[in-house]
Design a protein that fits this description.
Helices cover 74% and strands 0% of the residues. The protein is mostly helical and 258 residues long. This is Bestrophin, RFP-TM, chloride channel.
């Protein structure tokens, strides 16, 4: 139960309180001055709920794709380590240690890069990661000096290539999000709707008992802003703020490299 409540309160923030308060004030003013109107309920679904649900679905699919690509990266990195440890006939080398060190630093930089809000820092870390890819590629060429056949060496080069592709996919997922115009449209309507619907909420006062007149504006505001917050959490799968975020942790990979 505690975990459920913790997850629930993650989607409540200052925006929820502000929009709810403004919605209640708008409804109260409209009722006081007799400004009432019967707006169609269907407008909420067409103008707000459908675009928000579409955005949430798109953000969730991006998160799932990011998980797959990060899994590809980890899988090929671990396979490369196992190859350096088990495929060589001459065991008098430090190839496993070098491979583990490079992969560890790459994952640390990936975590820093994807959680950074500064573009310059982001680009610097990206450059460092590709330098580590270069080192890893050069390291694999030395495997053949320790008894790995040329055919297996070609497979190792493919491992490095697939790690680069997985990383580049993660970068693209991080940079190119769900449609910006759709998100802007949804946010404007979500924040404005509970306020401009004040006349509609005021017209429903007679349908509620005393002290329950503001249930509708509060519920509408809370639900719409909460949906927007859910979409924001899914939109940034690497920021480590939401419960559904992707945790990039080098320790998870290192414990498989023993």
């Amino acid at each position: 139960m505690t975990k459920v409540l913790k997850s629930f309160f993650l989607i409540i923030n200052y925006k929820t309180l502000i929009i709810t308060t403004l919605s209640v004030i708008s409804t109260s003013v409209c009722f006081h001055y007799g400004l009432i109107a019967k707006f169609p309920d269907m407008l909420v679904g067409v103008a707000i709920v459908f675009p928000v649900v579409f955005s949430i679905g798109s953000a969730y699919n991006r998160r799932e794709l990011a998980l797959q690509r990060f899994s590809d990266f980890k899988g090929h990195a671990i396979a490369l380590y196992y190859a350096s440890r088990d495929w060589t006939t001459d065991k008098d080398n430090d190839l496993p240690e070098q491979t583990r060190e490079i992969v560890t630093e790459m994952i640390r930089l990936m975590r820093t890069m994807f959680t950074s809000l500064h573009r310059r820092e982001w680009e610097e870390n990206e450059q460092k990661i590709f330098q580590y890819f270069s080192r890893l590629s050069a390291l694999t060429t030395s495997y053949k000096h320790y008894g790995i056949p040329s055919g297996e060496f070609s497979r190792l080069s493919q491992y490095v290539s697939k790690m680069i592709i997985a990383f580049d996919n993660l970068k693209i997922i991080h940079v190119y999000r769900t449609p910006i115009t759709l998100r802007a449209y949804s946010k404007v309507f979500i924040y404005v709707f509970p306020i401009i619907y004040g006349p509609y909420f005021a017209s429903t006062f007679k349908d509620f008992s005393a002290s329950l007149e503001y249930v509708m504006p509060v519920l509408y505001s809370f639900i719409l802003v909460s949906l927007d917050n859910i979409q924001d959490h899914l939109e940034h799968p690497f920021d480590e703020l939401g419960e559904d975020d992707i945790r990039i942790d080098e320790r998870e990979v290192i414990r498989h490299m023993e």
